[in-house]
Amino acid sequence: MKIVIDTNVFISAVFFGGLPLKVLQSIISKQNDAYITPEIWDEYNDVIERMTKKYPSRLKQQLVDEVFKIFKVIIPSSEISICRDPDDDKFISCAIDAECMYIVSGDDDLLSLGNIDDLSICTPAEFLNAMKREENL
Question: How large is the greatest C-alpha to C-alpha distance in the chain, in angstroms?
Fold first, then answer.
């Protein structure tokens, strides 16, 4: 499946693990393809830098390096303006332009949108459940 991972899920995975880590592992194992834009890439790096100052021993740098190698980078062409937090529109643009099925997020501003046409915006738990359902088909 094609997915976009919101910054909060990516950061949770590389600093704290849990269900967000399982989402990243699904990319590493090539069960899913994750798409980002240069703007999302920059945001990930900015937040990693800030979080590393707060939690220097928590960062799983090898995981970051591994995932950054396999992200599929696209240049967005859609100008989307539908999220109540305009900073989150970049995730929707990326997902639409890459024809993704999911945005995986923990952000209420994105989650409140639910579905946009064939694009589902869901939590890591909801996404992992959708993966299990897909595997059982």
Answer: 44
